[in-house]
TrEMBL record:
One of its GO terms (molecular function) is peptidyl-prolyl cis-trans isomerase activity. Gene3D superfamilies: 3.10.50.40, Porin chaperone SurA, peptide-binding domain. Keywords: Isomerase, Rotamase, Signal. Residues 1-31 form the signal peptide. It comes from the Bacteria. InterPro entries: OMP_Chaperone_SurA, PPIase_dom_sf, PPIase_PpiC, Trigger_fact/SurA_dom_sf. Residues 200-297 form the PpiC domain. This is Parvulin-like PPIase. It comes from Novosphingobium aureum. SUPFAM superfamilies: FKBP-like, Triger factor/SurA peptide-binding domain-like. Pfam families: Rotamase, SurA_N_3.
């Protein structure tokens, strides 16, 4: 899957080491034995003063540019609106700190673009904002503005995020992309490997990776467990991946794209092998930390997927009058099913349905994979004119699906040469982008208030 360049690339949650004066220092013996450039911290650390470097107000000055508490609040409101679920006080604190880190990275990206004379006009920002309003919110601009204010954010906050993304993307395209090289032999080798693996299973997996030092594993495990709980209660996996994951895939909502299990660490491959699409698992312990996995989908390499078949369906339905009992509904459903089973295919069902007071809806562009999982397998086994068993409830009535036709999917030939080269180039640009941002963080002058 082609990965896009994003301003959120590589937002790892890196906790700085706070050293107060000369209070924390290695002994001469330790300093001499340590390799050059190593950070040496003695076992008997003593911190002077009551200041806790991990407890800060959510404001900062980044190379002279101010990030206010309002900036954090408004960006946090966007995330909470996307999750649409309650967030605990502890979770809120962690989320605020992550939002602050993201805003710091965003500020660094905008500053670096400006220093390199990379310009993003207000007209371009407004155009992207308008596109978000129409595509993501299905609203006009005034309704979009009102929505943002209603959830506690603002148009300015979203436009600043758009500014950061456009500036960073443009900077990478000018300063990084021209120096990325993928040879034709590399692409051909990848295509050959893909063809050789035809018929094997591929998995499209979402990940949230949290690093953990040996002495902090329990705390990170608890944090990961809390994230899993929030997602299972309705939180957005993509939103949590963007805010918490320390993997480079955070920029694309944790999406690893289509991969084979052999590409995963053994610990994750063993777990993913047993997962079903839509399943969330974790936290899974891996070297260096913990992973949360979400199986988006799975398929066979270069093989047509039956679920991509386009179906022509007729839905025949009846409703129940208010006050209908379960027993009465059962009798009515039984007689309805018997009448429809007597229909001689899709050409006859409309007349039969009219005779029993049923409604018929026709749709000849239904993709099998878009149907509920419990229906997909059954309906793909039908022949034209056959029906699924009736389903429904007292409130919604009874429905029967009849298959009228099926256009099977063609075998997927995989990405062509140009597509694969673009994908490999993007992956290398993303890795360079992470290193670029890491250098900006290292050299930044940041004051916390």
């Amino acid at each position: 899957m082609k990965r896009t360049i994003s301003a959120l690339m590589g937002k790892a949650a890196i906790a700085p080491l706070a050293i107060i004066g000369a209070a924390i220092a290695a002994t001469p013996a330790l300093a001499q034995s340590a390799p050059q450039g190593a950070i040496v911290i003695p076992d008997d650390v003593k911190i002077f003063g009551n200041d806790n470097p991990n407890v800060r107000k959510a404001t900062a000055v980044v190379n002279g540019d101010v990030i206010t508490g309002t900036d954090v609040d408004q960006r946090l409101a966007l995330i909470l609106a996307a999750n649409q679920n309650e967030v605990s006080e502890e979770e809120m604190k962690r989320l605020r700190l992550q939002v602050l880190r993201n805003l710091i990275d965003e500020t660094l990206e905008i500053q670096e673009a400006k220093a390199n004379e990379v310009e993003v006009s207000q007209a371009e920002i407004d155009q992207s904002y308008n596109r978000v309003a129409s595509q993501n919110f299905k609203q006009d601009l005034s309704a979009m503005d009102a929505y943002l204010k209603r959830v506690g954010s603002s148009p300015e906050s979203l436009k600043r995020q758009i500014h950061g993304e456009l500036a960073w993307q443009r900077l990478l395209q000018r300063n990084v992309a021209p120096f990325i090289n993928v040879s034709e032999d590399e692409v051909k080798e990848t295509i050959d490997r893909l063809k050789a693996s035809k018929g094997t299973e591929e998995y499209r997996i979402g990940e949230i990776y949290l690093s953990a030092a040996p002495d902090a594993r329990q705390q990170v495990y608890n944090n990961a467990s809390q994230i899993v709980k929030q997602i299972r209660e309705g939180g957005s996996f993509v939103a949590y991946a963007r805010q918490y994951s320390e993997a480079t895939t955070a920029a694309v909502g944790g999406d690893l794209g289509w991969i084979r299990l052999a590409q995963l660490p053994t610990e994750l491959a063993n777990v993913a092998r047993e997962m079903q699409p839509g399943q969330l698992v974790g936290p899974v312990e891996v070297p260096g930390g913990f992973d949360i996995l979400y199986l988006i989908d799975k398929r066979q390499v270069l093989t047509a997927d039956p679920r991509d078949a386009i179906l022509a369906l007729k839905q025949i339905s009846i409703g129940f009058k208010p006050g209908t009992t379960e027993a009465q509904a059962g009798e009515r459903a039984e007689s309805f099913a018997k009448a429809i089973s007597a229909a001689r295919g899709c050409g006859d069902v409309d007349e039969v349905a009219a005779g029993v007071g049923a409604q018929v809806v026709t749709n000849d562009q239904v993709k099998a994979r878009d149907l509920p999982a419990q229906i997909q397998t059954a309906i793909l086994q039908l022949s034209p004119g056959e029906t699924l068993p009736p389903f429904g409830s007292l409130d919604e009535g009874v429905r029967i699906l009849m298959l009228c036709g099926r256009d099977d999917a063609q075998a997927d030939n995989g990405p062509n040469f140009d597509q694969l080269m673009a994908q490999m180039e993007d992956e290398r640009i993303n890795k360079r982008a992470q290193m670029y941002l890491r250098d900006l963080r290292r050299d930044a002058v940041i004051e916390y208030n």
